[in-house]
Fold 4-hydroxybenzoate polyprenyltransferase.
Amino acid sequence: MIRKLKIILEMIKFEHTVFALPFAFMGTIVGSIIINGRFPEWMDWVWIVVAMFGARSAAMSLNRLIDERIDRDNPRTADRAIPSGLVSKMEVLLFIVVSFALLFIAAFQLNPLAVVFLPLAVFLLVIYSYTKRFTWMCHIVLGLTIGFAPLGGWIAVTGQITWTAIILYLAVALWIAGFDVVYATQDAEYDRERGLYSIPSRFGVAKGLMIARGLHIASFCAFLMLFFITGLLGWIYLIGVIIAGLMMLYQHSLVTKNDLSRVMFAFFPMNGTLSVVMFCFTMGDILL
């Protein structure tokens, strides 16, 4: 059983939680201080982590389960756990049920607004895996889904939504959508041949990379806007935003239409580092 669990955690790239978790913490801290005038209670942190684990685990497992046939036929993904038979569909389904249960339990431990938004969050977590079958806007849907990390953290400790929370949500959503477009360039030809939808398969790799840059510019502007509107975030936060912007710029310099060999480096190490940088500089600004 432990071996199967390890395989499933590897299948869903559990370590990629680093993309969203720092932003969930960022939304939690900023929201709590702006609205409540204090740091979050320690039990809030516990339930937010549980909710994040449940939500991401359920979403990624669903994605692998729903895309099993696509993964099996794609040489790049044929060795994933389900197509290769390392785990059964029933085992993954059980893991999904447990993950959603954790999300529901956590939401009910937080506040009524978290429960109200639970159906929308679950809908996005489920529908994303199907969007590649009917719209090239699938990257935007993914961004809006993972963008719930900071928004969910904010809601969890405040029980309300403000324009600041929405701008933070959009900043993360646009960032996620942008790097997902970059990631999708690897499968542009395969997606086109199989009738699957993505920005690179619809518009080509070159235009796809341009669109990704546009999404990241918009994300940078949204993060920058928080500096001006919160009344809380100062120069240390601003330095973090500038560093994040430079990291996005460097990320795009690594990938060109003629050379996609460094997509994975641009995708994981760079984006994982960026989210941690944003959280650390936000936290440093608040503490100092």
Q: What stands out?
A: The two ends are 46 Å apart (CA to CA). The chain has one domain: 2-287. DSSP finds 16 helices and no strands in the chain.
